[in-house]
Amino acid sequence: MTTSPDDRNPLPGANITTERNSMNRRLIVRTVAASAAAALVGLTLAACTSSGSPSPAGDQGADAVENALEEGGEITFWSWSPSAEKQVAAFEKAYPKVEVEFVNSGGAGDSNLKLQNALAAGTGAPDVVQLEYMSVPQFVLADAFVDLTQYGFEDLEDLYTASSWQNVSQGGIWGLPQDTGPMALFYNKATFDKFGLTVPTTWDEYIDAARALHAADPEYYITNDSGLDGGFGSAMLWQAGSKAFQTEGDEVTIDLEDEGAQRYAESWGTLVKEGLLDGIGGWSEEWFDGLSSGKIATLPAGAWMPGVLESGADGSAGDWRVAPMPTYDGGAPATSENGGSTEAVTKQSKNPALAAGFLKWLNSSDESIDIFVGDGGFPSTVAQLESPDFLNAEPEFFGGQQINKVLVEASKSVVPGWQYLPWQAYANSIYGDSMGPIYANHGDIADGLTEWQDANITYGQQQGFTVAQ
Questions:
Q1: What is the pLDDT of residue 44?
Q2: Residue 101 near residue 75, CB atoms below 8 Å
Q3: How far apart are CA 47 and CA 49, in angstroms?
Q4: CA dist., res. 33 & res. 95, Å (int)
Q5: Residue 45 pLDDT level (bands cut at 50, 70, 90)
Q6: CA 277, CA 265: separation in Å to the nearest integer?
Q7: How far apart, in whole angstroms, are the C-alpha atoms of residue 29 and residue 204?
Q8: Rounded CA gap, 375 and 387, in Å?
Q9: What tens digit of pLDDT does each residue of 17-39 get?
């Protein structure tokens, strides 16, 4: 659902901070995050043999979950979702013997850092924690989560899209999917009409539109990108067909010079070199102003973006529309995912069966998912995605367009074969070190990708992985 300059917050309206605040925090957070991530990933190789072993939970299976819910108790839940508090209230009404302490964890990056610190300390982790799909392998390797197979969660597979289920079921079941973030092109129709632009279907057409728009009025840009958002960069590499990261056990291959990466570097790099991108960071006040005024004309973004636009760019209500992502060859639709999250039960939980019961309700009950969708969430449950009410919704903010039909179709055209690094959250946090200066100086993206590659190879080797290029 979302992206902030340093960390990705995949939910509408989540942890909206200014670029200035993020920059001020970066040096402090980077130092702490690096050491915490190092401690976490350093545990991964030693934990590989024990990862997936169930936590003691008394009676196993679905009965254990139901019994725990009936008996009641207290659990803690970390989330950055704007719907989480409403969902907790609805759950407590349905299960009055259970008390859920909700903690707003502030966003994906902040939440990961807090969880890493709790794992390193051996105490302080919540019972249930929200995290992005890309962070799941890192914490699973560190043996941080309860394998939910012991509670019969494998029976829930058919409730979810295949891609979202795959994200939580590598070598065990580590959570239940909450949402996905298939990429689409959000564009300001009022701006396009004003300057006579046609919605691009290829990246070459997108570049042509960027040139025409900025030439007509230098205050207008096709989009913004400061080179600081590793989540966005990774999603764009994925959409270009790159298979930059491949992992098998403790063996990792990193190739940010493959055909897909070169395709992305050449195309998006043209926008960087020609100064056709607004250099402001996402989630800043200036960013929302640009979206509201239409001076930022498009956003290639995940399916969580509608809620962000409605809550943060309300001055442009009625102006925005959604189209499929441009492709490189003008052929079959091809997209990637940017965002998407799950919830997991941590091994520090003193009542994992109760925590599992809450998680099951949170991401599989119609009542909970309806609350989530009502706050702009893009669900991963097949029933909701195929629901006529969901597909035929005509939000006024998007001029009455049935945008969910576009977004659901996007979810069916995700390019296969992409993998995340075991330390992807850390990799994204250092992305800006390599790419930021390239963007600022209108340099060659390929050079930045090579530098990012080298930094990740060094880091992976330091953590004990066998890293090949």
A1: 52
A2: yes
A3: 6
A4: 37
A5: low
A6: 14
A7: 38
A8: 17
A9: 333 233 333 333 343 444 455 55
pLDDT tens digit string along 443-452?
999 999 999 9
SS3 of the chain: the string is CCCCCCCCCCCCCCCCCCHHHHHHHHHHHHHHHHHHHHHHHHCHHHHCCCCCCCCCCCCCCHHHHHHHHHHCEEEEEEECCCCHHHHHHHHHHHCCCEEEEEEECCCHHHHHHHHHHHHHHCCCCCCEEEEEHHHHHHHHHCCCECCHHHHCHHHHHHHECHHHHHHHCCCCCCCEECECCECEEEEEHHHHHHCCCCCCCEHHHHHHHHHHHHHHCCCCECEECCCCCHHHHHHHHHHCCCCCEEEECCEEEECCCCHHHHHHHHHHHHHHHCCCEECCCCCCHHHHHHHHHCCECEEEECCCHHHHHHHHCHHHCCCEEEECCCECCCCCCCECECCCEEEEEECCCCCHHHHHHHHHHHHHCHHHHHHHHHCCCCECEHHHHCCHHHHCCCCHHHCCCCHHHHHHHHHCCECCCCCCCCCHHHHHHHHHHHHHHHHHCCCCHHHHHHHHHHHHHHHHHHCCCEEEC
What span, in angstroms and rounded, lies between the C-alpha atoms of 271 and 73?
55
Taking the CA of residue 292 as centre, how many other CA atoms within 13 Å lie in the half-sphere pointing to its CB?
A: 13
pLDDT on residue 50: 40
User: Around Cβ 303, how many Cβ atoms within 10 Å?
Assistant: 32
Amino acid letter for position 342: T
Using alpha carbons, select from 191, 196, 206 the residue that is nearest to residue 316: 191
Query: How wide is the angle at C-alpha 146 spanned by C-alphas 142 and 152, nearest 5°?
Result: 145
CATH architecture group of domain 184-301+305-337+416-468:
3-Layer(aba) Sandwich (3.40)
Whether 19-181+339-385 shares its CATH topology with 184-301+305-337+416-468 is answered yes
Residue 138: half-sphere exposure toward Cβ, Cα within 13 Å: 28
Mean pLDDT over 97-109 rounds to 93
Q: Where are the domains of the chain?
A: 19-181+339-385, 184-301+305-337+416-468
pLDDT at 436 over 70: yes
What's the CATH number for 19-181+339-385?
A: 3.40.190.10
**Residue 3, pLDDT score:** 39
Longest dimension (CA), the chain: 69
pLDDT tens digits for 328-387? 999 999 999 998 999 999 999 999 999 999 999 999 999 999 999 988 899 999 999 999
CA distance 158 to 181: 19
Of the candidates 182, 172, 267, 263, the residue with the CA atom closest to the CA atom of residue 222: 267
